[in-house]
Amino acid sequence: MGKVEVHGLLASPPTRAVVITCEILGIPYELKQLDPMNKSPEFKKLTAQQQIPVLVDDGFALPESRAIMQYLADKYGKDDSLYPKDLKARAVVNARLNFDNGTLWPRLIQAYRPTFSGGQVDEEGLKSLLDSMGVIEEFLTREKWVAGPKMTLADISFSGIICILTVPEVKFDMTPFPKVKAWIEECRKNPILKKYDDLGVQQTRERMAMLREKFKQR
């Protein structure tokens, strides 16, 4: 098996989700760190979307982290534990990934993007985010993991996003979501998830500090 290429930035939760998937599945990979604000002509040829991450596997280029994770699990997974082949179980994983991409991630960005430059939390965005966290709490009331009784790709993707809410400077109150808190601790028992979630927290803190200092000087 040759190495796949992951074009992205580890500060990005979607890029980390792809890297975590590679490591859990034992897929050799090369991370090509990419500044999203300064894309090379070579990168621009890979995808019309111009977004990270992008996977390159033997000349095949694929954007969108959730699609990449699904592709990797289908092609390289030794079993179907992360991405079940059973139609109904897989449909639940897909539904969670769609919720993550279309609801959770955009709402988190809306709520907290202003705080990265020293502004206030977007209250409307925070209200929507709290609604989403309530949905996840309900997922975890019904099952141990977000898409069923075992960890799947959905947990990998959710974990990289929700870890941002544990950053002290974000000041998100997790008290109303005890099931989510317990799930975070369960995720952290996996050394690969823990490693990259810790990295995500560290890089989020560093980026917030850098941007706040930059805007303070204006």
UniProtKB/TrEMBL annotation:
Pfam families: GST_C, GST_N_3
Entry superkingdom: Eukaryota
GO molecular function terms attached to this record: glutathione transferase activity
Every GST C-terminal domain range: 86-218
GO biological process, one term: glutathione metabolic process
Annotated InterPro entries: Glutathione-S-Trfase_C-like, Glutathione-S-Trfase_C_sf, Glutathione_S-Trfase, Glutathione_S-Trfase_N, GST_C, Thioredoxin-like_sf
Residue ranges of every copy of the GST N-terminal domain listed in the record: 2-80
The protein, known as: GSTd1
Annotated organism of origin: Liposcelis entomophila
